[in-house]
Amino acid sequence: MTYARITGTGGYLPENVMTNRDLEKIVDTTDQWIQERTGIEQRHIAVEGQTTVDLAEAASRKAIKAAGIDTQDIDLIIMATSTPDKIFPSSACILQARLDIHGCPAFDIQAVCTGFIYALTVAEKFIKSGSSKKALVVGSEVFSRILNWEDRGTCVLFGDGAGAVILESSDETGILSTHIHADGQYEDLLLVPCGIADDYDRVKAGRAFIEMKGNEVFKMAVNTLGRIVDETLAANQMMKSDIDWLVPHQANTRIIAATAKKLKMSMDQVVVTVNKHGNTSAASVPLALDVAVRDGRIKSNELLLLEAFGGGFTWGSVLLRF
Ligand code: ACO
What we know:
- The protein is α/β, with parallel strands linked by helices.
- The chain has a single domain (about 1-320), classed as Peroxisomal Thiolase, Chain A, domain 1, CATH 3.40.47.
- It contains 11 helices and 13 strands.
- It has helices spanning about 20-25, 30-40, 50-65, 90-100, 115-130, 150-155, 200-205, 215-235, 255-260, 275, 285-295, and strands at about 5-10, 15-20, 40-45, 75-80, 105-110, 135-140, 160-170, 175-180, 190, 210, 245-250, 305-310, 315-320.
- Helix 3 packs across helix 4 and helix 8 (about 215-235) packs parallel to helix 9 (about 255-260).
- Acetyl coenzyme *A binds near residues 156, 157 and 190.
């Protein structure tokens, strides 16, 4: 049987750090409020001119090195992002050129905070069907560019970063199942309400910003993530106690703790990076994975549950043996 197996991870965060104290100088907020409601202490913010593909390239090179593969062997590139460098070409194509890879399919996926779970799901299908042997899957974002720095309800939550994995065809167990969903009826709760074909004037005015009904998103996220955990375990006839590590989307420690509670997992088995990274949207899951792989917490052969919830709404999970 052919599996898709993660053989290398990489992450990159812009050097520029913004603390909660820095935010106190910009909006009416406090370090205490942000930490109590979200668990966030700081986030990394890209400097002017630093783009989503810049971050993605740095993370990708680390993942390629960790996997020990030749860049030229990559035969598929999928990039999850909601903050692409350009309208087109896709960020995946720009990344492909930067890596001096020519000819393999390269495309973007846009599923906001669930983007990396969607991208991993699609890459796994390519590998299982035999269309791809070595895929580069990246989540990269500069959400700082779509934040209204006058809106304390959103600007304190997000950060910039990129995470990447190499997914290879293998006889050894890797991804066991993937589960992705969407329900477009909740658009009003979390969106950037303008684009090329709708309210372009707002884009031209430089006011393409995230709008969110945080409280309602919070409740939906907790309930939906609880359901996706049940769905994933049932599909694999596994028990909660089988899972070694929860690698959740990093939006808020309270959302993460609620999912861990549902799984009856101790927080020691949960990878938390939101305190240092903020919510990096599509980059948050691969960044968290990379942190816990590199610091030695996640070891070979352990069972990992990756999950995310985000704008769309979209949500999903991946169960894998690392
Ligand atoms: N500093 C100080 N006070 C604030 C701030 C701030 N940064 N932001 C909001 N407040 C105030 C509000 O104005 C409100 O004041 P009021 O009671 O006088 O009206 C009070 O704090 C409570 O506001 P709520 O929105 O009810 O606070 P809540 O406890 O829900 O926390 C938060 C807000 C952190 C946004 C939370 O709802 C949340 O995390 N939601 C999930 C949203 C999210 O993470 N979205 C990202 C994309 S989706 C995803 O990744 C899951």
